[in-house]
Amino acid sequence: MFKKKKREVLTCDESLSHIAFIMDGNGRWATSRGLPRSSGHVAGAAAFRKIVECCNQMQLKHMTVYAFSTENWSRPKEEIDRIMKLLSDYLDEAERIIDKNDLRIIFLGDKSPFARELRSRMREIEQKSSSGKRILNIAMNYGSRSEIVHAVNEALSNGKRVITEEDIDDNLYTKLSPPPDLIIRSAGEMRLSNFLLWQAAYSEFYFTDTLWPDFDEKELKKAIESFYSRKRKYGGLG
Ligand code: IPE
Ligand code: IPE
Ligand code: MG
């Protein structure tokens, strides 16, 4: 029987230029090991670094990660403090990563709730990496509903009176990236949790039970294989 040849190395072509990740399951990963939830975030940050590396190697043009939602502020202070510390650590490393990989980092979301120092370092990394050819969007204090409202208000303040789809596209936090071709969510939940609601109109979805800290190159390969096995039709006949 004909057996479909498995892709040996991670590759992508123009049909896969943007992958978005909902990095879920850090807390469950930790509690199942009898560890505090914050340890799960540390392990999740390590998995994130590896996946960024994989996407760099495959020369993926756009990558978006959901790191912290507008709703995640309702978690215990200790957990939030740990996540902010992980963000700060990543900002320390980011300069090296952007230069090596020709990467442009953009933080999606309203930066105003972050500590002043974090805010200015986020802006600094965005500026320093602004000539990078490939984009890494990090959704931090991100919520898609508020992003859409923000986009509409931006368009209105630019003098628009009747809002078009294009006006919204042009004013989203993700305006420099095309819509995601593939959205991957780890840890078994099958929902968007306020992520890229507008952009996901024709995205392909891939859900896995694997918890984010265990999500690795093999898992990414499975998701990409699944993507390439699908037929996108955009409402037409394909
Ligand atoms: C995702 O993991 C990370 C953030 C939301 C910051 P969770 O912390 O949501 O992990 P679970 O879903 O509780 O296992
Ligand atoms: C979505 O995960 C947000 C991030 C991964 C940053 P949540 O854990 O916050 O989502 P729900 O609460 O399960 O919907
Ligand atoms: Mg979760």
Describe the structure.
With 238 residues, the chain is α/β, with parallel strands linked by helices. It has one domain (8-228): Decaprenyl diphosphate synthase-like (Undecaprenyl pyrophosphate synthetase, 3-Layer(aba) Sandwich). Helix content is 41%, strand content 15%. The chain has seven helices and six strands, in the order E-H-H-E-H-E-H-E-H-H-E-E-H. It has helices spanning 26-31, 37-57, 77-101, 116-128, 144-157, 165-171, 217-228; strands at residues 18-22, 62-69, 103-108, 134-142, 182-185, 204-207. Strand 3, helix 4 (116-128) and strand 4 (134-142) form a beta-alpha-beta unit. The protein is globular, with a radius of gyration of 18 Å. The structure holds 3-methylbut-3-enyl trihydrogen diphosphate (IPE) (2 copies) and magnesium ion. One 3-methylbut-3-enyl trihydrogen diphosphate binds at residues 22-24, 66-69, 72, 189, 191, 193.
Comma- or semicolon-separated keywords:
single chain, 238 residues, alpha/beta, Undecaprenyl pyrophosphate synthetase, 6-stranded parallel β-sheet, 7 helices, 6 strands, globular, binds 3-methylbut-3-enyl trihydrogen diphosphate, binds magnesium ion
CATH superfamily: Decaprenyl diphosphate synthase-like
Counting helices, strands and paired strands, the structural category is alpha/beta
Shape label: globular
CATH topology descriptor = Undecaprenyl pyrophosphate synthetase
Radius of gyration: 18 Å
- CATH class (first level) name: Alpha Beta
> Assembly type of the shown chains?
single chain
Bound chemical compounds: 3-methylbut-3-enyl trihydrogen diphosphate, magnesium ion
Number of domains: 1
User: Order of strands in the sheet with the most strands?
Assistant: 3-4-2-1-5-6
Uncertain runs are: none
Give me the number of helical elements. Answer: 7
Gap from first CA to last CA: 27 Å
CATH architecture: 3-Layer(aba) Sandwich
Strand content: 15-25%
**Total E-strand runs:** 6
Overall residue-averaged pLDDT value? 96
